[in-house]
User: What shape does this take?
Amino acid sequence: MARLPFQPRGFAAWALGAAIFAASGQISVQAIIYGLGRFDQMVADADVIAKFRVERFGEAPAEMIGFSGTVVSVLKTDGKPIASEQTFEAAFPIWPKDLGLEPVAGKTVLLILKRYDGVLQIDGSMWAILPAAEGPVACAANAAPARKVFLELQAALETVGAGRAQGLILSLLGRLGDGGDLDFLGRQAESSDPWVRRGAHAAAAQIDPRPERMEPLIDDFKTHLADPAATGSEADHVFWQVYDNVQVASRCGDWGMEEPLASRARAYLPVYRILVDRAPPGYGRLPVGIEGLRNVGTVDDLPRLARYLDHETIWVRHDVFEGLGRILGFPCKRPMITSYGMPLPPEVESWERETREELERRLAEQGVRP
Assistant: This one.
């Protein structure tokens, strides 16, 4: 399997399982990428988005919960018939308790669905099951599906309680909202709850990534990285779920520097620099900063990247090589590597040695290395 960029804690095992599941033909490989945070694209590519009342749960492993129930309304359709009664064998990959959803019969949820071999299935993403308001939500009949999902999630905010769940939902709203939603997010940013404020600032920065929108993020990252208890806790995992778009944008080069992802990455450049400058030793999210500098760093970031030329993790070291090479005008794209979990083949070791020598020479010319 080709190298996947830095993933959240616990993601490696999930990605491997998802890849095997994808290979069986039951789920698309593209769905694995959606699990990395491209929620807006996931909504755009869904075959069906339905409001669904869960009536019964089946027996299944703890994180693969099968359920059945009734379609309440349809927000997006592919034009094919949709039976009112539906059974899903598994909510892949997990039931989203982080969003304040407990697996209790009677819940109304939003389902992001894809057709595989003509059968509707839960899309393979951590955001494929979402909270929904119990009653109808006012929305123009001709509104785009993304707008309908936005309004449903907005209406569901109060149903999940304050705290982390609201922060996560607000962050998701940022991937679907537009400039007209900034006033709403501004009001949320005045909340007394730090997670609600965090989610609102994250969403506003996604919609309108101007420097002034980045200031609250920069302050939040500085505070978070300075607290050893925070960076080593479960709260760190949720922190990065809220700021998932910072991580997704850091990999914009993996999507060919497409817009608006590349522009967002450039706006997040101060955050990537903070990560590289202030990450505590051994912090697992450091590679997000290095990925960001690899794709959008400038000549000012040469010393930052050069510090990690000897990083013990091979693929992180190779990200450093590529970032330095891009800034120095020395293309040094890594060879195809089937697995970073195995010894590197001789030709890759040779590439690494020769590339390192050339980078050192060019860094010396820039006065970065003696």
About this structure: The radius of gyration is 22 Å. The longest strand covers residues 48-57. Residues 1-36 have pLDDT under 50 and may be disordered.
